[in-house]
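Dear colleague,

Thank you for sharing your sequence with our group. We've completed the structure prediction you requested, and as agreed, I am returning the results in plain text so they can be pasted directly into your records. Please verify that the sequence below matches your submission; if there's any discrepancy, let me know and we will rerun it promptly.
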Amino acid sequence: MQYHEIMHEIGIWEESLEFKNFLPSPLLKAFVKSHQLLTGQNKQVPLNSWYILPDNSAHLIFCLYENNGQLTPRLSIVGPRTQHKLINRYKRHLTLITTFRPGAISYFNQRPTKEFTDQVGQASQLLHGVNDDFMDRMLEAARRMETGTLVALIEKLLLANQIHNSQASGFLEEFQLIKTP
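Please find the predicted structure tokens below.
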């Protein structure tokens, strides 16, 4: 077992898995720590698990996994964890993890961060714009291993939600009143 500092996990790292870390765009730097990409066919036996250690960050996780011979996409939001969690990456071909800074998930929806603590939910229930078209674009980019496109799609989704929630709270209207021509 080994500790992965960026992923904040303990487990057995397989040579067939590749890890890449991407920094967020300047527009999201205050809210997003990083994007982490795991690629490669995971040949772990189902009993081989990773321990994700507690942290104060929420995560947006896109997975491309094998389900009955089909590649299936999934996009989830994982809240900050107060306890470790066991996960298994068996049959995952790609995982893109967007790690938010502590408390920053609340800038992308109108729910307090404490509602997400130790919870996992479908991103479509919490973020505007996660629909069939978006998931099809993510699936196509994942199949083609277009990592830049995957990160760009996630960042565009987050920026759209940030603007949507700012408008809903009246922030942009106030800002436009103060802004000089």
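Summary note from our side: The CA atoms of residues 39 and 104 lie 26 Å apart.

Kind regards,
the structure core
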